[in-house]
Specification:
The structure holds 2 protein chains of 2 kinds. Helices cover 22% and strands 15% of the residues of chain A. Chain A has helices at residues 2-21, 78-85, 87-92, 131-145, 154-162, 178-181, 305-312; strands at 26-30, 35-42, 45-49, 62-66, 69-72, 213-219, 233-234, 246-249, 265-267, 292-293, 297-299. The longest helix of chain A is centred in the first third of the chain and has 20 residues, at 2-21. Chain B contains 13 helices and 17 strands. In chain B, helix 6 (152-167) packs antiparallel against helix 12. The chains are: A alpha+beta, B alpha/beta.
């Protein structure tokens, strides 16, 4: 009894120590595929969210407290995303067979269009997926890795993008420097580029500005910040209940400099499915949003199994 | 038998393209005044209530024209119900389909078509020739999805009915929606005006990841299984070189202003070899040779994890052109690479809506403007000949293919009837082997 308890205590202590010591950059392998991606530690902290110099929906600037998490060093690339889209492809590229849990993952309908839009696939960011699709991708990763990956909240995204800065961009306010950090309208030639070619921000994150804009988990509300005018926002999130709009961050290869600002917000738009000839329209793809991708977050303290299940297992809202 | 007319290869192309010059104003067209005094809205019937039929109905209703959907037809009650509930939820005022005008079964179209002024034909393409014939016979204006047939017998039926439709002054729009997309129209106009000279070669592609599968369910008859999985059976789909790639092949014909005289190519089942995938190939690569000796290369495949491409490129004696429906891209260059035209990518109308905007505008005004069926039939035939070439490994001549009496349709249509292609004991369907399979 005593020994057991002692061992258990020791084990728990060790676990905590392990987690803390290892709050650092790590490489996530997808077992048996040879594919991996890296995650950067984002320390807990507070920051002023929003901007007084941008659009109305960025106001008021308000203090936000954020818990620690890891964030994808890069935008998720097609190399990994395609294993989620195509189960047969995944099976072919996985040595030693697929874990049982992946059977429970709903796969996207195969896109009948070329969702790379001719912009390239290897090392290029995956794009044009819906919010639902992006969350199901996280569920697939959970089945493959046993770790809870999810979309960043809007507040986490901006915190990570700013990396301690309060300027328009993570490197300052000078738009002439933007080309060193970002692919956007002025230098992208109107296509996505391989991830990680520009300079990272201070926390080691690449392409937070530009290349593809990135999904956040939050429902978009123009007035979302007003409730926090006079109080601290503690890990705020506007839980998504409606199909539109969700909040998208960072701007893309197709955007002007101002849309790449750390505080700039973009609501998702049903018009991005107007070229879907079917009713109901696809739950999975936006034929006219070749500028939206995603970046992963892993919270340092993962939620319970039940909370994880609730996060992933949502019935998609029919779109028509 | 149906008319075995020679194709009018060099026929002035404008005649077969989407827009009839100027639009003929005719006083005695069907619809105008036909239902005066009762309800002046244009009555629409939807034949084929799957995702595309429902989508086409939504597109029609989005035009702002004075439309009422009055009848629905499908072989599957569940598909019809889903279509009805979505239409009724979003367009309640424009839906008037009581239970007695919801028609179910292989003959449902015969009951729905007479009730309408305009019919939307959006079943799997194998049924299109019969549905089109009936709609023309009943004197209806028609929106029909591409492709318009799956074999030469069906193409000839559509060609014959197309002539009757012209005699009866019926507007016929085919869902080759690139003809209604501003980027293609602007690019083609410039090519017609000689901006890049004579077209000597081209390359057209539909390389994507494939489509859905509906796994076999216990108790399903073979007919129901094939109908639910129509994409994988030629009598219903025609193979993806016909069903999907017809869009790009049609652009090749449009740019050339004619149809190929012969086709040769190769194809196979590389990825989709299991029992879920019926009989169709997953890749085709063919050469379309035109009367002037120019060759357009066509490639389509449904592979996972490979590079994708859906677009069309052409080389002329004075320049080159690039088209992609996605992103509304149409770019023309001279031989030195100087840009001659670059279509603006934003602010273009949705072509799936615009084809209905133009059709219902013509019907509302009592004008005859659209006779898409003949080009739709010939571009469909081009895809079919591509399939015959890849399945057989032979060079297929246009004239010979058009005379073919192969008819893929089952002898009888009912849930207990047997299609002509059936699975073996392992559930695998026979498929074509080049060099062994005889197609003509």
């Amino acid at each position: 009894m005593f020994i057991n308890r002692f061992l258990l205590c020791g084990f728990l202590l060790l676990n905590v120590a392990f987690a803390q010591e290892n709050f650092e950059t790590y490489d996530q392998e997808i077992h048996g595929t040879g594919l991996h991606f890296s995650m950067q530690p984002i320390p807990a902290g507070s920051y002023p969210m929003g901007s007084d110099h941008g659009n109305l929906d960025e106001q008021p600037v308000h203090d936000v407290k954020i818990d620690a998490f890891w964030m994808g060093t890069h935008e998720v690339t097609w190399d990994i995303y395609e294993l989620f889209i195509y189960k047969e492809l995944e099976a072919t590229h996985t040595k030693g067979g697929l874990p049982e849990d992946v059977d429970a993952v709903t796969r996207p309908t195969k896109p009948y269009l070329d969702m790379t839009f001719g912009m390239g696939k290897e090392n290029h960011p995956a794009l044009a997926m819906t919010h639902y699709n992006a969350i199901q991708f996280c569920k697939w990763l959970y089945a493959r890795t046993g770790l809870f990956y999810r979309l960043p909240t809007e507040a986490e995204w901006e915190y990570a993008c700013r990396a301690g800065s309060t300027s328009a961009y993570s490197f300052g306010d000078d738009t002439t420097m933007l080309r060193e950090y970002a692919w956007y309208r002025s230098n992208s030639n109107n296509v996505t580029h391989e991830v990680g070619q520009k300079k990272p921000n201070k926390w080691g994150l690449y392409d937070m500005h530009g290349n593809v804009a990135e999904w956040t988990y939050d429902q978009y509300s123009e007035t979302a910040y007003q409730q926090f005018a006079n109080r601290l926002a503690d890990n705020p999130v506007l839980a998504p209940e409606e199909l539109y709009p969700h909040s998208i961050r960072g701007g893309s290869f197709d955007d002007a400099a101002t849309d790449l600002r750390s505080a700039a917000r973009l609501p998702s738009d049903p018009m991005w499915k107007q070229l879907d000839p079917q009713i109901p329209k696809s739950n999975w793809w936006f034929p006219e949003a070749p500028f939206i991708g995603l970046r992963l977050v892993r919270p340092m303290n993962p939620p319970s199994e039940a909370e994880i299940a609730a996060y992933y297992d949502r019935v998609p809202i029919a779109d028509y | 038998m149906n008319s075995n007319k020679k194709p009018k290869q060099r026929r002035e192309f404008l005649k077969t393209s989407a827009l009839l010059a100027g639009g003929a104003l005719v006083g005695n067209l069907p619809f105008v005044g036909a239902h005066a005094g009762v309800d002046d809205s244009i009555k629409v019937a939807v034949v084929g209530c799957g995702g595309r039929g429902t989508g086409a109905a939504f597109n029609a209703l989005s035009t702002g024209a004075n439309i009422k959907i009055v009848a629905l037809a499908d072989v599957f009650r569940d598909r019809l119900d889903e279509a009805y509930s979505k239409l009724a939820e979003r367009h309640a005022a424009k839906i008037n389909v009581p239970e007695e005008r919801k028609f179910i079964g292989f003959d449902a179209y015969k009951q729905a078509i007479p009730l309408a002024d305009v019919v939307i034909l959006a079943t799997p393409p194998g049924f299109r020739p019969g549905h089109f014939e009936e709609a023309v016979k009943q004197g209806k204006h028609i929106f029909m999805e591409k492709p318009v047939a799956v074999d030469a017998s069906g193409v000839r039926r559509v060609l014959a009915a197309a002539q009757e439709a012209e005699r009866k002054k019926l507007n016929v729009v085919v869902g080759l929606q690139r003809h209604y997309q501003a980027s293609y129209r602007e690019g083609l106009k410039r090519i017609r005006d000689g901006a890049i000279g004579d077209i000597v070669s081209g390359q057209v592609y539909w390389n994507s990841g494939g489509v859905w599968v509906h796994p076999r369910k216990p108790g399903q008859t073979e007919m129901e299984y094939q109908m639910r999985n129509w994409y994988y059976f030629n009598w219903l789909c025609g193979d993806h070189i016909v069903e999907q790639h017809v869009h790009n092949i049609d652009v090749a014909n449009w740019v050339k202003g004619g149809y190929p005289v012969s086709v040769q190519g190769t194809g196979s089942r590389a990825w989709r070899t299991g029992p879920d995938y019926g009989e169709i190939y997953d890749n085709h690569a063919v050469e379309l040779t035109y009367a002037d000796g120019s060759v357009i290369y066509s490639q389509c495949r449904h592979f996972e994890g490979t590079s994708n491409r859906i677009d069309e490129t052409f080389q002329g004696t004075k320049g080159r052109a690039y088209f992609a429906a996605g992103g509304n891209q149409a770019v023309l260059w001279d031989t030195r690479g100087n840009e001659l035209y670059n279509h603006p990518r934003k602010g273009n109308p949705n072509p799936y809506e615009h084809e209905h905007v133009e059709l219902f505008d013509a019907v509302t005004k009592g004008e005859l403007r659209f006779a898409d069926a003949e080009n739709g039939a010939y571009s469909t035939l081009t895809g079919i000949i591509g399939r015959l070439a890849t399945y057989s490994g032979q060079v297929i001549k246009w004239e010979e293919a058009l005379q073919s009496n192969v008819d893929l349709m089952p002898d009888r249509l009912s849930w207990d009837a047997m299609p002509k292609v059936l699975p073996d004991e392992q559930g695998i369907y026979p498929h074509a082997i080049p060099g062994k399979t005889v197609v003509l």
